[in-house]
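Aim 2, interim progress. The first record below pairs a target sequence with its structure tokens.
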Amino acid sequence: MKILTDATIGEFVEVKKNNAQSSLKERLLALGLTNGATIEVLRKGPKNNLTLFRIRGAMIALRNEESRLIEIV
């Protein structure tokens, strides 16, 4: 199982499963993190705690705690 935090800069990945719970899951779905969505990894933030992604044309920063909940292909 590969998770979103494993993706490297410049890589394109596809969402396989969203393992978040309740309100966080709803928030991630609203941001476009649905099954089958393509994500581009743009850059890592300071101390690799934040990562910037392009999802459906929007740039979104997620913390590692949030990125660990997304399974990718």
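The second target in this work package is listed in the same format:
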Amino acid sequence: MAKNPTNARLGTYVSRSTTGETYKAYVPAPLPPVPPIDMDRLYKSADQAMKALGGVDALAKMLPDISLFLYMYVCKEALVSSQIEGTQSSLSDLLLFESDETPGVPVDDVEEVSNYIAALNHGLERMKEGFPLSVRLIREMHKILLRGGRGSNKAPGEFRRSQNWIGGIRPSKARFVPPPPEMVDDLMSDLEKFAHNEELKLPALVKAALVHVQFETIHPFLDGNGRLGRLLITLLLCADGVLAQPILYLSLHFKEHRQLYYDLLQDVRIKGDWERWCEFFLDGVTETATQAANDAKKIIDLLEQDRLRISQIGKASKSALKIHDYLLKKPYLSITKAAVALDISVPSTTSTVTKLVEIGLLREITGNSRNRIFAYTAYLDILAVGTEPLAHSN
């Protein structure tokens, strides 16, 4: 296994055979890159990204309940990350599924997205308990990510024991062949050590950019690598103290520039072009954080306006404010479930919901006379930007 003599940043290729056919698998060079990352080229982008993160953090703190904002952003990230892999569910599908209101929802697709939310929350909770972001935690999260649904037969929580590849019908025709399975354990162990190496003089955002590429190149699992690799970005930044709250999700940036995203990952492997990838990553942090800050401001303004409108509807305003709080958690509402959750009688809930429909705050979406579902459409419209399923997947 000879090193490339001209560029130490490049990995090596190892030959393997299967069914009488030879192919070459790629083994990445260890991190950090050699020669080192040219930080002079990245300082401006890194500074802009950190300022954007500070802006969204400040605005998020102004929300009446940041946990609701975070929950909805986790939902959005889970959805968009899964859409990059070809899932066709929408934000409305996911929120209806999460609320146990699932008429016509593509359950297999939405279950995958719901598992993503559970995996991310598991990682965040474990880290709050003091557990390090580690290979063990990554495997725990993967087990949750692939529980049930289409990935349940792809060894959830276990590193692969067979060769995988990207593009093409077999390894010899593939666009990219990750390292052989017997190398995965050592490569992931090295990646964990890099992630926790406090002697490195690299900004946390740049380190997260490097870890993401290395994880995707190792491709340690049979399925779910893309989703888990994007999920790890936020967890790593939380672990390094860059994010006080998990408010940064880059999947929307990757989705909007999907082909460039894939091309830049490949350029790191075949050209060693880490700087161009890092610029793209940092620009994505700036773009995504700025969008999140804008969304937070829109949500703050919407809640203030709607609560003012509710206060003007008379004696029903007290129960209407309770229902409004409920809508922030469940923007798709059924009268029976809301009545139980809020300890308000069904007739009173029905009357109040009718008032909210009359003032344009809620809209009934089923057209049914029974088992009706009402949507908080203005709130959903803010959240749904960029979550339309892709028309085609690679």
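The chain has 15 helices and five strands. This observation will shape the mutagenesis plan for the next reporting period.
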